[in-house]
Amino acid sequence: MEHTRFTVRNFTGYSAVVLGLGVVSVGFGAVDLIMIAPKGLEQAAAVGQAEVLISAIYAVFIGVVDVFSGRLAIAEGEELTWRRLPVLATSLLLLLVPCQFIGIGLGLGIEPLLRATGQKAELIPLVGDYVQVRTYAIALVLGYMILSESLKICGLKNFSALNLLFGLAMNVLFNWVFLDTGASRLFASPTAAVATATLVAQALMTLSGSIVLVRQLRRRPDRFERPGRKAVLTEFRSMARTAPGVGLRHFNDYLGTTIPLLFIGTLGVAQLAAATVATKIYTLFCRVPQACFAGSFVFYGYALGRRPSDLARTVRKMRLYSAVPTAAATAVTVLAAPWLVVVFAGPGLDRDLAQSLLYAYLLYVPAYFFEQILGEMLTARQRAGLLFLSSTAVTYALTIPLAWCAVFLLDSTFLAIACKGIPTAVLALVFWRALRRVERSGTAPAESEMSLA
Question: How far is residue 281's CA from residue 268's CA, in Å, rounded to a whole number?
Answer without folding.
Answer: 20
